[in-house]
What we know:
The chain contains 25 helices and 80 strands. Among the domains are: 31-162, 7 Propeller (Methylamine Dehydrogenase, Chain H), CATH 2.130.10; 672-789, Sandwich (Immunoglobulin-like), CATH 2.60.40.10; 908-1068, 2-Layer Sandwich (Heat Shock Protein 90); 1090-1236, Response regulator (Rossmann fold, 3-Layer(aba) Sandwich); 1245-1363, Arc Repressor Mutant, subunit A (Orthogonal Bundle). The chain is 26% helix and 31% strand. Residues 1-22, 253-265, 1071-1100 and 1235-1242 have low confidence and may be disordered. A five-stranded mixed beta sheet has the order 1-28-27-26-25, with no helix packed on it.
Amino acid sequence: MKFFLKILFSFIFLSMVKLGYSQEPLNFKKLDKVFHGNSKIEEGDLGYLWITSNKGVYKFNGYEYIFNPYDSIFTNFKKSDQEFLVKKDHRKSMWLSSLNGELIKIDTLNRKKSFSNVLTHNKRKIQITAIVPNKNQVWFGSEEGSLYKYNYNNLKLDSITSLPLIKKMGFKITNIKFINDNNFWVSTNNKKIYKYSINENKLEELELPSNLNGSYLRIALDSNKDLWISSDNGNIYKYKTKGKKYREFLLKFNSTSNENSSSVNFNMIISLLYDINGFIWIGTDGDGLYKIDVETDELTLYKNNKNNRFSISNNSITNISQDRNGNLYFLDKTGVINMLAKSNDYIKYYHGLEDNTPMSVLSIFKSSDSSIWLGTDGEGLNRILPNKEKTHYSINEKGKKFFTARYIQSIEENPKGQLWLATYLNGLWVFKDGNFSKVGTPDESGKNNEEVRFLFKDSKNRIWSTSATSFNIFSAENKLLATFDYNANGLRGEYSHGIVENKDGDIFVIVNNGGLFQFNEVEIFKDSYFKHIPFNKTIQENLKKINIRSLILGADNSLWLTLYPGGLFNYNIKENTFKSYENKENLKDLVIVSTIIEGDNKLWLGSTAGVHKYNFKDDIIESFFQSDGLHGDTYNKRSIFKDNNGYVYFGGNHGVNAFLPEKLNKKISDAKLYINYLEILNKPANEIINDQLKNGLENLENLSLTANQSSFSFQFSAIENIANPNYYYTYMLEGFDKNWILSKKDRIATYTNIPSGKYTFKVKAGSTKGVWDIKSSKIDIKIKPYWWNSTLAYFIYTLILLIIVYSIFVWFRLKEKLIKETLHNNQEKEIYAVKMNFFAKMSHEIQTPLTLILGPIADMLQRADSNGNTLLKQRLQIISNNANRLSRIATELMTVRNKELGRLRVYASQNDLIAHLKKISVSFSEQARFKNIDFIQDYPNKKIFTWYDLDKIEHVLYNLLSNAFKFTPPEGTVKIVVEENQKKKTIKISISDSGPGIPEKDLKDIFKLFYQSDLGKSRKGTGIGLALTKELINIHHGKIKVKSSSKEGTKFSISLSMDENVFTPEEKVSVDENSLFTESSDKDFYLLNKDLINKKIKESDKKFTLLIVEDNVEMQIFLKDILTESYNLFIAENGKQGIELAEKNKPDLIISDIMMPVMDGVEMSNILKKKKSTSHIPIIFLTAKNSTSIKIEGLESGAIEFLRKPFNFYELTLKIHNILESQEKLISRFKLDSISSQEKNHVPSKDGQFLESLVKELDKNIENPDFKLDELAGSLNMSYSVIYRKCIDITGKTLVEFVRSRRLKKAALLIVESGYNVSEASYMVGYKDSRYFTKCFKEEFGKTPKAFKMESQNTDLQDFLKKNKFT
């Protein structure tokens, strides 16, 4: 009965309790990252904020969120885990638990230890639901009601006890709160609370109020050790442990100020916290956030307001936590974290509007009745009375609260207590006796301006207003005294935002685009004027780009101006000087919007990034932000005011903050600086050097990198108060950087391609720019060199160097021994080079004289034969044979040289080998007959066609046969045998003699160059033949063997392949079968056709012209002797002269040597073939070079025939005759085709049209001596340069030469056909001077006009004109 009465009395008492209640806003700041509605928040040892998510833990340092995935924390993480707990113990270790029974301890060195194996029951993992540290222990509550304890003394996790089962079922432990070291409270999700005694290991259930609804209980313990209990049904109770009494707090919402009309809403409570400031915070599911003052029991509600960005983000608060700085964190069900920084009692806050909605404030004023007036940006005027009542004047209000202006830019008060209001686009207003009246602001022309920017009251109580066009000054009685337009009275510019009066009564104004002006007042006030005070040159020249934002008076009677861009300027009135502060390091990054003076050397600055106290004397700045208790960091231009009590007001887009400057001071920083992120090669460091980061990056002291890891980045941050991350940083890499580097906003230091070596990365931080008052942090870095730059490598290099030095030493010792051999070898090389060069020169030089010998000899042989002089013929034949032998020796020398230079190659063609052998054998028949040697030739009875180099095999056979006949005595035998092996596709040629044989000791060396046996030396050999023979057989992919004995003589066997595939396509050339004629048959052919040639030449009567290009005078004479009777000849000594004569005389054929000074024959041929005027002339090459490559090169240059020296002159004359006759027939055929073709089908070429037009135009002016060639440009419609170039391309002559030739030919015709004399003819073709005409005529035709005329009279005229190419 007593217990019942006791309970009844308690409830009656509770029902009579009246709670103080209010609903007020706070400045909640939202973190910029959204998490999970079930996330948990805990401050770590280093100051990071640990925030759990469904994928990992984020560590927030005030700037960034550093992510740590769960799979790097838990050993058996499962994606199904969605609920996690995180808690810091007194040893600064972090504990994390998961829904699936994972429990991990992470110590300060980032070492992890799992206790999941302990937390098992019947092989099922147990979930930890509560973690509470207590001194050297950590206590855990589980989902099944078990209590566990971790003891740092033995480093073990033990199960201590379990809560009583209800219906054989355990229940979840929701909270653990320690009363003292021996006792703590335990709450559950089954409407039970227990008190546990550690020493007694005893559980005692707490008796709860009977009207406590709900089962999920949460508890909090305040500083009085009273227990606060919440239920999921909205109940809040305070259990006073001393009296063991309960007190209920009803969470109610007053819809009106009348209590009787209040309505009570009960909501689910889902979070509960007691903070260090003495407040209980209660998070509900949909009804907002409640705060209860433990001392006064005052209840405050915070709800989301869509119009107030500083309100709580959501009305459902799932988690509440607090850091060591007193900052509170409220997590809503959407995952948004609301941070409530610890309040600053010295800072006052005023909202922009009556309903406490933050509004952007443009102007602030405290009137004489102590009312605070706030001019808003779009919402009219707000008044705050001394009793904190608020009145709002706007276009939306009625009655006396109605005010049409929306934007209040400036406020001022006159001595009568009347308030002046400057508005944007609504003009100037005066508020008096509760009413608004409008005041006109006309310019000097009388036109009113509605845009009023600024107001100022001077020492004579006059009100100055600035508009878009002028200054208006009003008396104390509100009468307009004067108007001064901006572009008159000494003013210039537009808009003014500042007026001040100094202690001497001088008034100064600022005007945008104009600058600073001083007002000079005269007796008649309207006649007053302004004097311009120029800025420095740079500012003055850029005034149009600069906005002068404000003007204030300094304590020393100087002026402070705020420019944008440009920063702060101070104007010393006495000295008339400006001082700029724009380059001060502490002000560089600030955008200053408002200024006010404090004391002698301080300025308070409003900016777009906080409020700053600047000591301009010592260049020291203190910055204050939202984290320091301000309600925002962005402030408005000129929205600043200082009242008579010393309070400074700053207006921004959040409302107004006010404070006493002497009370607002920056607390000494206790921040710790950490390097908290490292990238190597643009990848997180834990992906590359995870083994070095086992203790955490913050604990890293030494960093070891390989040579290819020399690009890295550090990120760092100072952590003290997460709510205030505004620090300054500087860093350097010692050993690389020479100076400290100021960090940018991202706080990242990046280095690339750092050389190997030892470095120290250092970073410093400070709460004030330039003052590094936070302990620095550093990491020693060692970058290993590449292997080739390592210590071992340098040891190897040293060893190699020593070896080199030793080798050099040994080399110098051997030098004396080697120098003689080297000199000897060099001499041999020089002799060898000289010898090879001698071979080449001699081979070439010998061939030309041989040609001059063989040519006349051939002619003499023919004549001796025709005259029947047998003795003469025999002797001449001996001369001819030896000359031919000498030619072969020269060719042999050339071949040896080519072999030694690596230029010897094969030019294979398909030939009849048997016919070739017979031809060669004929040359030795006379020798066999003379020495009475039996010359046996054994050939197959068929033609054998195979691939080989005709010249080279001929050389081999000549050499072997020559040796055979040389060493065979008279009456001996020389035998040549040819055998074909069709199976092996080879052909074997054997040449044997009955000579003395080759000694056996010499057989192995006979194929060496210049080697001669004793027998060979006695026979005056050269030692070249056999060596060259073997080399020529080798390049034919064949073999040569020798057998010799003194009894049987010597036998050489040559084996050649008959397979054409042994030669590459490059080694094969096509040869006309006609080339297989023998020299004798060629000779016979020429002799047979000699009469025909002479006959035809006689008939032709020298109608053709030949050009001989030859540098050898004797060869010139020889060719001239044999050709002059049949042809007109021109002779040139080199290719250059040959081109000039060919262009001038247009020969019918050119005979040229190849090797000549100045320009060789091949180059000359290439040039002539490119010119249209000479491209048709056939060219025959004569050369002593015995090389197929030279022949191909000559033919490619445009030559049509190629004769090697020595040549048969009959062959030359016949080829000349055939070429010229073929050309003449071709021309005749062309003319016949042209005549027979229809005229209408004839379409002249562009070149023909051009030439026809040119000739036509020249013929028109041929008699005009003053005709100038550049006049052709107009008549032919093309530039002179084009005409000149086309003339050269088509005719081969310059335009001047062509015109002169045309005139001279015309004159020649006039002389020989028309009978004009020389002077008449010269005048008729445009020559004024007959002497000059005669000179030109002789150069053109080779004779004077008189001689030319006489010659024409002595011959048939048509033949004469044809001979001189007039037809």
